[in-house]
């Protein structure tokens, strides 16, 4: 990659780098003052906490290093990608653990970690008109119906780009995916993976693939594409396209950065202190999060006795759902359903929907058969049911898939306190036959 082609040379990144270089220049001046006996404890304490310039440059070069490691296998850096995720993936890849890094990327982009990004698709017309399809793809992803959500995501990607470019879809040969000062649309980004995804697939292939080859999948040549790698890369690409489209909408294309008016020393100091504090907090949170994730392990030999269930466990919530059905507490069930968008809901209306699904079913008894932790925030509880369907006795095993959330509504971690669980209501329809 030529020097002028690096993401780090984009105007926004260059400015950040220069700001930190300026800060370290001030730091050198302060050391000179100290040498002559002119000391200021407040200045010294702050600059003692200032990240080293090589650490700042390490952060600034992360997108380039990420694309260098992962673009050829379908992952690219983009504005809405989690910075701690980029850093972790690059660290692993550069230490010879690229396979582990790709597993982390795949897990991230097929989990509830991407839910907060869904609202970004409500803004631009090319995505908002497709939002019901995006919601369905997200639901299919969490329920691991990868075989249906991959083709759906590929058509959303192609159609959205067609609307944005006003002429050609994402997979068209001459589609321009450029925007000024944009990470996603850098030459090592969307353009690079478009060529990979658009590879010609002329022979039927029954072996598993790990790249979303558009031609092979949609034309029925690649038959085994339903895995987290392919789904995750589709989602990551869709988010990158949204970032590119936002850059175009904000009229960044070929716009120069205008020089700002000089700011006072006091204002410079305030801004510098803010940068230092934000960096320190970000680093602490990042290190703590990855330490917890790496240390987490699924539980083994879990008791299926209800009396043993922890109040913050997924099995406790699963039992609460079933008991609410028996007690006809449809409002409680409605509150525990995982929503695939962030729009407000009317619990009364949602409870009415649950009532319609369950009103002709009378629960006689149930038994928890197994508890499986699928991931840090996902567990599956298998329950045997004995119930009446329109007066006819039925016996059936169902699987309730539950998702963990923390106090802030973000992805939680199974095993920690103050966690809550929501369920995907896909088992309702299975009770009707």
Using brief descriptors, characterize the structure shown:
48% helix; 433 residues; alpha+beta; Nuclear Transport Factor 2, Chain: A; four-stranded antiparallel β-sheet; 2 domains; two-stranded parallel sheet
Molecular structure report:
The structure is a single chain. The chain is an alpha+beta fold. The chain has 2 domains: 3-293, no CATH class; 306-432, Nuclear Transport Factor 2, Chain: A (Roll), CATH 3.10.450.50. Helix content is 48%, strand content 12%. It has 16 helices and 6 strands. It has helices at residues 11-35, 41-49, 53-60, 62-70, 83-94, 98-108, 125-128, 131-142, 146-165, 190-197, 214-218, 228-249, 265-295, 314-326, 330-335, 347-358; strands at 205-208, 222-224, 361-375, 378-389, 392-405, 420-423. The chain has a 4-stranded antiparallel sheet with strand order 3-4-5-6, covered by helices on one side. The chain has a two-stranded parallel ribbon with strand order 1-2. The radius of gyration is 26 Å and the shape is globular. The termini are far apart. The model is unreliable at 20-41 (pLDDT under 50).
């Amino acid at each position: 990659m030529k020097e002028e082609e690096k993401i780090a040379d984009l105007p926004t990144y260059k400015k950040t780098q220069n700001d930190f270089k300026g800060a370290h220049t001030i730091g050198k001046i302060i050391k000179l003052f100290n040498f002559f006996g002119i000391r200021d404890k407040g200045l010294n304490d702050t600059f003692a906490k200032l990240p080293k310039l090589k650490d700042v440059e390490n952060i600034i070069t992360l997108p380039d290093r990420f694309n260098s490691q992962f673009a050829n296998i379908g992952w690219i850096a983009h504005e809405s990608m989690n910075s701690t995720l980029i850093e972790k993936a690059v660290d692993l890849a550069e230490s010879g653990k690229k396979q582990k890094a790709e597993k982390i990327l795949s897990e991230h982009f097929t989990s509830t970690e991407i839910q907060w990004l869904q609202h970004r698709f409500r803004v631009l017309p090319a995505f908002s008109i497709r939002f019901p399809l995006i919601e369905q793809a997200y639901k299919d992803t969490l329920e691991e119906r990868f075989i249906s959500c991959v083709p759906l995501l590929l058509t959303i990607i192609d159609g959205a780009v067609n609307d944005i470019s006003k002429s050609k879809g994402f997979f068209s040969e001459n589609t321009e995916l450029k925007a000024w000062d944009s990470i996603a649309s850098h030459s090592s980004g969307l353009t690079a993976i478009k060529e990979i995804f658009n590879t010609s697939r002329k022979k039927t292939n029954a072996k598993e693939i790990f790249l979303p080859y558009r031609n092979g999948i949609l034309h029925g040549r690649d038959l085994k594409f339903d895995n987290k790698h392919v789904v995750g890369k589709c989602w990551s690409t869709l988010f990158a396209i949204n970032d590119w489209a936002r850059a175009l909408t904000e009229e960044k294309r070929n716009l120069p950065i205008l020089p700002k008016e000089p700011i006072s020393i006091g204002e410079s100091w305030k801004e510098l202190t803010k940068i230092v504090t934000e960096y320190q907090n970000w680093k602490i949170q990042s290190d703590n999060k990855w330490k917890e994730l790496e240390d987490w392990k699924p539980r083994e030999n879990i008791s299926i006795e209800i009396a043993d269930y922890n109040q913050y466990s997924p099995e406790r919530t699963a039992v609460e759902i079933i008991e609410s059905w028996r007690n006809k507490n449809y409002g409680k069930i409605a509150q525990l359903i995982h929503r695939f968008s962030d729009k407000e809901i009317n619990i009364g209306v949602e409870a009415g929907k649950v009532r319609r699904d369950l009103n002709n079913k009378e629960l006689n008894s149930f038994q928890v058969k197994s508890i499986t932790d699928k991931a840090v925030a996902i567990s599956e509880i298998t329950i045997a049911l004995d119930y009446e369907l329109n007066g006819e006795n039925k016996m059936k095993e169902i699987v309730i898939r539950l998702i963990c959330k923390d106090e802030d509504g973000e992805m939680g971690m199974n095993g920690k306190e103050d966690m809550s669980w929501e369920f995907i209501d896909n088992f309702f329809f299975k009770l009707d036959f």
